Structure formats: C-alpha cells, structure tokens
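Chapter review: from sequence to fold.
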Amino acid sequence: MPALTATTPQSPWDLPALSHCAQAAWPGIALQWLASIDSTNSELMRRAANGQQQPCVLLAQEQTAGKGRLGKPWHMQSGQALALSIGLPLAPRDWSGLSLVVGLAVVSALSQWARQAGAAPEHMAAQRLGLKWPNDVWLMGADGQGQKMAGILIETVSHAAAVMAAPQSAASAARYVVIGMGLNLKPQDLQDTSVPPANVQDWAGVAVNPQDLLAHLIAAVLPAVQQFEREGFAAYQSAFSAWDLLAGRAVRLSDGRVGDCLGVDAQGELLLALDGEVVQITSGEVSVRPLPGAGGDHTVKGV
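The token string follows.
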C-alpha cells in the first residue's frame, strides 16, 4: 500500500511532517494512515503473513476491533484516542522486556509533550503517571487505585528475508515485530468497563493536540527500539524502576497468588516475594494487579 499524503480525504494528520519525524529516527520507514480498520496490529500482522515485512508506522482514525494483551478488547471512539502500530524487522539477542522499553518511551514522550504543552506540574502530580508491568501506562492515585491510560501489544512473526537467506543460522532468529499502542486522549463513554480509563487531557489539564503528541511518541519509540535491539532490556532496567507503579506494593496475580512486588530483573521479569522466597514472573504467565493501599513511594523522574 503506498504512503498516503496530507491531501488524502478525511486525513486529520499532517502526514508528511509525521513521516519526516519517523524517517529521522528510522530511515526508510513508511508512514500510512487508514480511516478505519479492525485493528492496526491485525492489519500489519496480515501483511507480514503475506510477505510485506517492511518498516512501517500505521495510523488509524478508527479501530472497530482493537485488541490488547491476552486477547482483551481495546475500546476506541473516533477522535478520543490514538491508535497506531509500528512494524519492524528486529534481531535482538533477547526479546525479553521489549514491551517495558516501549512503555518507557511512551511515558517519556507523554512527559515531554506535557511540559511543552504548558501542563502545570502540580496538576499532574495529583496522580502518578507510570508503568504497570508488563504493558500498560497507568495513572495511580494515593490510594493505590490505578486507571489505564494506554496499552501496548507486541506480536511477532518469523522474518521471511532472514529465514530464506540462512534458515540454519543465527540470522533466522530475526523476527518481524508489530508494536501496537493505544492511548486515550479524552474521556470516553464506555459502558462495559468496570473502572473508567484515564486520559491524557484530564491528566495534563490542557487541550491535546494529537499531531504533536503523536510526533513525540514516534520520535521516542523508534530510537528506544533500536537501542533495545543493540543492548537488550538491561540498559533500561534502572530507568524502568523510576516509573514502576508496582514496586513496593502488594499485588495479586490472576492465578490467585498474592505477594510483594520487588521490581523487575535484568530480563524484565517481575520479581515477587511469595511465601518466603523470590520468584520470577514472565509476562506470558499471568496478569497482575496492585492491591489498594499505600506503597510504592518512588520519586518519578522526568515528570
């Protein structure tokens, strides 16, 4: 599919400007916009299955069947949220922790955008912006109750070019990764959510210019993924701890176990104190929720 231009009917974006932003971070990457799609992640995965595995940023004005981790639906009302997916061929030594690195890039981009947009620090301090392992951006109040502002979904397929070139070599470990991001911009009237989602406008206390925020996201995520490919999650472990909303809190796993979160290790696995021992939890095993109450008193850097 050819890249669309700013003259495309109904396009709300200055696509050439966004494309320039993406190209500055990842030369040769395409940037495309769709008025409506079931899911930007699903679309890039379909393309990848058909051999289209070029670097691409795919934006959508509307998603009709957005999805999150563990197959959970992600709701999006047109104009109230951002939906984008980035498809990239990658070959890191270890894939562990990629969603955490993307999350770090998202909160960093949000913080930088908010400062430039004139958001008042005292307004944003009412709720702590941070990361809920392994793939969510949350706002958390002093009572320990969290609200989801953004979600990240990582999917991969075998990278066709690497497999064809050297099916028995280390290069065959290369994969095409699709990084999906959904970000709530404004309040949404969602009837089937138990906890109303957080949104950027209420958090920052200023009007949201989606174009500016999207440019910040693209400029933050692409370099972060490049560094992850070279250095892995260990290079980000310290930075993640500054944004970690679970560390120091009692948490409940989806399998019913309750323990104290001790942060993450150098592979991005969650460390929990359970029954007198420290156990490692991988993102594919369970989901985790903080228990209400005090805890996790960290100073968040960059806000």
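Two observations follow directly from the output. Residues 210-231 form the longest helix (22 residues). The chain has one domain: 15-247.
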